[in-house]
Write the structure tokens for this entry.
Amino acid sequence: MAENSTGRQAGEKAISSAVIKRLPRYYRYLGDLLKNNVVRISSKQLSQRMNVTASQIRQDLNNFGGFGQQGYGYNVEHLYNEMGKILGLDKTNNIIILGAGNLGQALANNQDFDSNGFHIIGLFDVNPKLIGMTVKGVEVYDIDILEDFVKEHDVAIAALTLPKSKAPKVAEQLVSLGVKALWNFAPVDFDFPEDVLVENVHLSESIMTLSYRIHSQNE
């Protein structure tokens, strides 16, 4: 049976985007609890840490089976492992980065990727000064070999840290090569079919949102 973008099988209840956005937070908080040797936690205790209501937590987790026991709460390690499976972190997700400038290199140097199942296998750029260098052991390739590289490797995600003028063309090339998940840092929106998943991280929009909140508080 086919699955939709949330990982649910066709015919089952779709998971809202709001719930999906909370899943990484659950995973992060549960990981912190594990490091502090916490064995079990109630939805009320978890809600106090996450600033989400206990009812919301129970509703979110019930989308995936619940996991809790009445009178006991949640086993932290079990819930952490199950959340990782829901997020696909029990599998290896190969990533390539298009654009090996400051932002691309910062992503490649992220210490959390490998521990969460994300494996950066290549960076690509047009700058001859960058081509051939390595970032955390990963080589920067000439973007001219992108097609051959994607055909030879199992690429799950492509991160685009490119200028606005170059991102659309490269994104179209990636989709034509069969890459179905784009992590887009370029300040541009794409128009692709629904089977192409795009996660936009527009840094300028994020800082503008923060600016609004600062100034609205001061009025």
